[in-house]
Amino acid sequence: MGGVRLSGLAMASALGRGTEAQLAGTLAGVAAFAPVTRFDVAGHRVRVAATLPDAGSLTDELATAIDEACGSAGLSGAHRAACPLVLAVHAFPNAPRVSADRWRTATELAELLAIRVGLGPVARVYTSACVSASTALADAAALISSGRADRIVVAGGYLVEPDQFALFDAGRALATDGAVRPFSTGRTGLLLGDAVAAVVLESATGGRRRTGSPLARLTGWGRAGDAFHAVQPHPQGQGLAKAIGAALRRARIGPGALGYINAHGTGTPFSDAAEAAGLRQALGPAAAHVPLSSTKATHGHTLEASGLIELGITVLAMRAGKLPVNAGFLAADEACPLNVVHAGPRSVNSEWALSVNAAFGGACTALVVRVT
Amino acid sequence: MIRTTIALTVLAEARWPEPGDDAVPQVPGFVLSSFNPVIAAVADRCLRRRYGEPPAPRDDGSGTALVLVSASGDIASANHVARTVDDGGRVGPLFFFQSVPNSIAGYLAARWRLGGPVVCLCPTGDPRADGLAEAELLIADGDAAAALVVLVEQSGVDGVRATAAAVLVSGGS
Question: What is the pTM of this model?
Answer without folding.
Answer: 0.98
